[in-house]
Specification:
32% helix, alpha/beta, single chain
Length: 281
């Protein structure tokens, strides 16, 4: 089952986006949505255990309560898309009268016997990648496949050019002190993928002062010892340095770009889901 607040959108032609199970009930959900569209009223339908549809079962043996809402007006959807575009938290609030968009995050609230609910949504993880080498592009591609946003800072003009063709924001850094190229919000993962670690010291010091939920840097223990000494000399506190993920990734000693990208993305995604962003906003 998906987490509470998961959305599946169904069009009048039967096409849909999203899923609510592993494929067990999607066809039945589409059929139910057609009935809701015809009736023009929201409803709650249970699938699986305790459902009136005895022939639709979940292999796990559980049950799903789904709130169906016909969308007659697109204002809430358009405003939600606008919030996503500018990376702002928002909430969708539904009642008998329809769906509304709220420009703030709300904790989840759902009554199984009512189509009314409120669910807050946070921005997707933003991979802010500073570095050079093949792992930069591999991490961008893998992260976007997962659903992350991505932006890149690199001294490699060819990497910047190739990523630009894929509509990935890529800034060319020419000096180590160009820390103004960094951005940040609470949903940003800043990832340093430099083989030449002299490039990263100014960037790490600046990134630690910007909002982020993850900061990791490539390199082994010797590289991190050099990094720690250089950051300490710049006045960065031991507490701040201790938050840096190094060696980076869930599994270390990754020698090829694809494995390094997978290892790094896995650690970023795990950290994102373990972070209580409700305390941030």
């Amino acid at each position: 089952m998906r987490a509470p607040g998961t959305i599946m959108g169904i069009a009048e032609d039967g096409s849909y986006e999203g899923s609510l199970s592993g494929g067990c009930i999607e066809a039945a959900v589409v059929a139910e949505a057609f009935d809701v569209l015809a009736a023009g009223k929201p409803r709650v339908v249970r699938f699986g255990a305790g459902s009136p549809y005895l022939d639709i079962k979940l292999p796990c043996g559980g049950g799903l309560d789904l709130a169906f809402h016909p969308l007659r007006h697109w204002d809430a959807v358009e405003r939600a898309l606008a919030s996503i575009a500018v990376r702002q938290p928002f909430s969708l609030v539904a009642s008998e009268s329809g769906l509304t968009h709220e420009e703030c995050w709300q904790p989840p609230h759902f009554e199984p016997d009512s189509p009314a609910f409120a669910f807050g949504y946070f921005p997707a993880p933003l991979l802010q990648i500073a570095g050079h080498g093949a792992a930069v592009e591999q991490l961008v591609l893998l992260g976007r496949t997962y659903g992350c946003d991505a932006r890149v800072i690199t001294p490699d003009a060819e990497i910047a050019r190739r990523l630009g063709r894929r509509d990935v924001p890529a800034a060319l850094i020419e000096r180590t002190g160009q820390t103004d190229l960094l951005g940040g919000d609470p949903w940003t993962a800043t990832i340093l993928l430099f083989h030449d670690h002299d490039w990263e010291i100014d960037l790490i010091a600046a990134a630690l002062d910007r909002p982020h939920f993850y900061l990791g840097a490539m390199g082994g223990r010797k590289a991190h010892a050099f990094r720690t000494e250089a950051l300490t000399a710049r006045g960065v506190s031991a507490e701040a340095i201790a938050t840096i993920r190094a060696p980076i990734g869930l599994f270390h000693s990754s020698r090829d770009p694809q494995t390094l990208a997978l290892s790094t993305l896995a650690e970023v995604v795990r950290t994102y889901h373990e972070t209580d962003f409700g305390k941030v906003v």
